[in-house]
Amino acid sequence: MSDLRITEAFLYMDYLRMSECIQISIAVCRIGIYTCFRALCCKGPPPARPEYDLVCIGLTGSGKTSLLSKLCSESPEEVVSTTGFSIKAVPFQNAILNVKELGGADNIRKYWSRYYQGSQGVIFVLDSASSEDDLETARNELHSALQHPQLCTLPFLILANHQDKPAARSVQEIKKYFELEPLARGKRWILQPCSLDNMDALKDSFSQLINVLEEKDHDVVRM
């Protein structure tokens, strides 16, 4: 083979190698551009938020309906006191709470336990500015719920509502009067003050409950 043909052959091989390198570079660039495009513009639907089924109890006038309606961004004019039960899906950034609210009238409280099944947590709302008689009734109902077979292992969020009223009792007074330390020892419970005019505090209380529910989920998975 002449020197000219050998030279042409080497040049052609160099051309093929260069062409291959260029094609690989272009392919890598395309993959990079596509990955960036997917990351910036095509994230897809966000992951589904976990849902938890809760039961909400408390005496009539404690403010259960108003608090839940405010969390759902409903108009105050649409709030009607619950006489039987109602269900609200309360959305949060990291979870959705399906809350079954039970009416708190005397003739309804004796049927509360019929609606406990399937609950993963409990919200108990009390009027911290109520009369001594009503506070005693609320205390008895909370004690009954904390010891009920279907609720005793569940996390409790206890809301001392109406903290904006002059007669409101402090959280420490509520804790002592309701004997929460000895009664609820070993249980997962959160006692928080709240009112309709402090939504940040209310949302923080529910965030604490969601954290406890998530921890409970993780415990079940580890088992």
Automatic annotation (TrEMBL):
Keyword terms: GTP-binding, Magnesium, Metal-binding, Nucleotide-binding
Gene3D superfamilies: P-loop containing nucleotide triphosphate hydrolases
Stored PROSITE patterns: ARF
GO molecular function terms listed in the Swiss-Prot or TrEMBL record: GTP binding; GTPase activity; metal ion binding
CDD domains the UniProt entry points to: Arl9_Arfrp2_like
Keyword Transferase: no
Classification via InterPro entries: ARL15 (IPR042292), P-loop_NTPase (IPR027417), Small_GTPase_ARF/SAR (IPR006689)
Binding site for GTP: 58-65, 104, 161-164
Keyword Magnesium: yes
Residues binding Mg(2+), per UniProt: 65, 82
Pfam families tied to this protein: Arf
Entry similarity comment: Belongs to the small GTPase superfamily. Arf family.
PANTHER family attached to this UniProt entry: ADP-RIBOSYLATION FACTOR-LIKE PROTEIN 15
Protein name from the UniProt record: ADP-ribosylation factor-like protein 15
Organism: Microcebus murinus (Gray mouse lemur)
